[in-house]
Design a protein that fits this description.
alpha/beta, Aspartate Aminotransferase, domain 1, Aspartate Aminotransferase, domain 2, seven-stranded mixed sheet, five-stranded mixed sheet, 20 helices, 18% strand, binds pyridoxal-5'-phosphate
Length: 462
């Protein structure tokens, strides 16, 4: 109890030099909260009988308060080193923007712009016009519109095309994407009535034909994205669905999820259809994400036939789903890189990481390990091992990309402990544990991550 009594009071602490310095840098209420938090925790330790006398030394108390103020004033949103090998990691922000986008982003963020101003006519313009021509040029579509994300794109299209009417979907395509985006629920929100056809594993053209009635507004195809049905399966292709739609004068829509604009099969990445293939198949309306395989900012992109896109541009819901100017700048900057396929592959981080060869990854792993070794303590042991990375973002769920992993070992620290401390510490570094080792996959590491990794490892050994 004597220790409890010797815990200083707030007023006394406020007179200390270290705290006066903190008050010069931070608002008083934040410093006061930090002091109270530290004193509360000291009192709790004293009552539990675990308080040591040196914890009450002025230097120790001040350091505790400084840490608390630093914690309270740090940005919540911060950079994380992605050593998981999941390229389109939804929890870590999906796609990284290309550095090539930065000049346009700066220009639009810090200056006024022609966001909704037609510079030629000197009258109000449309924010949607800036990327429409580019999207049409790249995909072969007649018209395009961009919204906040793909979920919004699906909601808008269904609300405009099928409210109060029936939408025919295969039972094998009623998908749930992470974060509980469920196709049946979005259809309900859009006011459309779901008409399920076929079975989980097999759906045939006749299933769609039999379901079409005067109440049918739309035939919808949804890319299975994050799962695969294998074995005895049958699915109706986009081209066949378009033929059925034309027979009955019913439009066809496809939610293709990823929005791949390049054929990645030369890199062993097969099975994800490109947007252009859906346009060529004659699909009337196609929706996809901006920040999955496309490698741009979060956005929902709608491309297709003019007669179906035009009403979407006038729909009341569009205002609530509209894309912001920074996103639009990042999207235009990203799409421009697709005009030259080699440039897109080299400059868009998502594509660069996905198409990196095994040899390239191995030599990068050597060089990264060397640089981390140089900057961290000798007790950190780094070894290279072969492994598998994943695409993520609900694309190519079964695809295994061969990669090189850096295994990190420090005597006296378990891999579980290391994982927790690297994730919770400065830098934060996300990796994974496999067979008792903490691993960093070089596929998703950036060159400028290396100082953060080295500092995070130093904090474990110091
Ligand atoms: C990812 C995905 C969505 C949701 O896209 P967001 O851009 O995250 O809103 C919708 N449909 C499919 C098929 C998807 O793969």
């Amino acid at each position: 109890m004597t220790l409890l009594a010797s815990i200083p009071k707030v007023d006394r602490i406020l007179e200390r030099d270290g705290i006066k310095a903190l008050l010069g840098l931070h608002p008083r209420p934040i410093v006061l909260d930090a002091i109270r938090a530290v004193l509360d925790s000291l009192r709790a330790s004293a009552r539990a009988g675990t308080l040591q006398e040196e914890q009450l030394h002025e230097g120790a108390v001040t350091a505790g308060i400084e840490r608390e103020v630093a914690r309270a004033t740090a940005c919540s949103l911060r950079r994380v080193v992605n050593g998981t090998g999941v390229v389109i990691h939804t929890n870590l922000g999906r796609s990284l923007l290309s550095k090539r986008v930065k000049p346009l982003l700066d220009e639009i963020a810090y200056g006024y712009s022609n966001l909704e101003f037609d510079l030629e006519k000197g009258e109000r313009g449309s924010r949607y016009s800036h990327v429409e021509r580019l999207l049409c040029e790249l995909t072969g579509a007649e018209a395009a519109l961009v919204v906040n994300n793909n979920a919004a794109a699906v909601l808008l299209a269904l609300s405009a095309m099928a409210a109060g009417k029936e939408v025919v979907v295969s039972r094998g395509e009623l998908v749930e994407i992470g974060g509980s985006f469920r196709i049946p629920d979005v259809m309900g929100q859009g006011g459309a009535i779901l008409r399920e056809v076929g079975t989980t594993n097999r759906t045939h053209p006749r299933d769609y034909r039999q379901a079409i009635t005067p109440e049918t507004a739309l035939l919808l195809k949804v890319h299975s994205s994050n799962f695969a049905v294998v074995g005895f399966t049958a699915e109706v292709t986009a081209a066949d669905l378009v033929a059925i739609g034309r027979e009955h004068s019913v439009p066809v829509m496809a939610d293709i999820g990823s929005g791949c604009l390049l054929d990645l099969s030369p890199f062993g990445i097969c099975g994800e259809p490109t947007v252009q293939e859906f346009i060529r198949a004659g699909v009337d309306v196609i929706t996809f994400s901006g920040d999955k395989l496309l490698g741009g900012p979060q956005a929902g992109i709608i491309v297709g036939r003019r007669e179906f896109i035009a009403p979407l541009k006038k729909h009341q819901l569009l205002r609530a789903l509209r894309i912001d100017k920074l996103t639009l700048a990042a999207l235009e900057g990203t799409l421009r890189l697709y005009r030259d396929e080699r440039q897109a592959l080299a400059e868009i981080p998502t594509l660069r990481m996905l198409t990196a060869s095994a040899g390239e990854l191995e030599s990068r792993a050597r060089s990264i390990a060397r640089r981390i070794r140089r900057a961290s303590s000798p007790s950190v042991r780094l070894t290279l091992a072969g492994g598998i990375s994943q695409v993520g973002g609900g694309a190519y769920p079964l695809l295994e990309l061969p990669t090189t992993l850096i295994a990190v070992e420090i005597d006296g620290i378990t891999p579980q402990d290391m994982e927790v401390r690297l994730r919770g510490g400065g830098g934060p570094v996300a990796g994974r544990i496999h067979k008792g080792r903490f691993l960093l996959d070089v596929r998703t590491l950036q060159d400028d991550d290396i100082p953060f990794i080295a500092a995070a490892l130093r904090s474990l050994t110091d």
